[in-house]
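Posting here for the record, re: S-adenosylmethionine.
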Amino acid sequence: MSRIDDLPPLREVIRRHGLGARKSLGQNFLLDLNLTARIARAAGRSTALTVVEVGPGPGGLTRALLALGARRVIAIERDARCLPALHEIAERFADRLTIVAGDALRVDLEPHLQGGPVRVVANLPYNVATALLVAWLTVDPWPPWYESLVLTFQREVAQRIMAAPGSKAYGRLSVLAGWRTKAQILFDIAPRAFVPAPKVTSSVVRLVPRPYPLACDRHLLERVTEAAFGQRRKMLRQSLRSLGVDVPELLAAAELDPTARAEDIAVEGFAALGRALATTARDAA
Ligand code: SAM
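Prediction output follows.
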């Protein structure tokens, strides 16, 4: 029997520690060991690996990551009620599981990362999932400190991440994710697999950083996508006015059609707009 098999079933852990799910913390626990193992495998098997897990909860996915052989798991959990359950796992893997109590949006991971490849794996709390993804996609310097992100989202968010120009789901998140990473939906998870069951289907997404994203300042890319998608039904010659620069000149420099709309423009077009904005703003100064 492995040290993982030794641990009590997750349902018992939840009952014993009084871990009734809290909606405010996005708590939908995965108790199906086949699914937690599948998510862990999606991050890849490597004994050299450090895995950062956000929101371990009662520790189902954490156990799967340890069972698969990760050298170290750094688990960041905001709900203090879950910490005793996680410490029970850590006792069996003293040198391999580090529990960080706090809000993943604020935690400084730097002191916990000690060299070697790092991957992020999480069944994310839905209420902060997009904010966390944006934070990971906008880290500087780039390439980032992680090799990949394997994350569970509501399917609608996964579709926004993957969306192509011309589709309704295409927006700022699609551009940012497409600019800096290659993303792929790996598989869906039905609501009934979670306790409690959410209203919607979830999707597991893997994002792998592009080593050389198209040249463009990250802040300028965010400014142009914010302006363009802020008025997505308007033509660019109108929607980009909020940038406060000479818009016809900007669009000419980016070689974009002034009558096109945000949802028609591919990542390459937005990167060109960001570069053109850098030049236009500099010339106007
Ligand atoms: N990983 C567990 C599983 O798969 O069963 C729990 C996943 S549950 C969807 C999300 C977890 O994230 C909960 O344990 C919740 O307490 C935690 N959480 C919510 N907001 C958080 C935050 N800002 N930082 C860290 N953890 C958070």
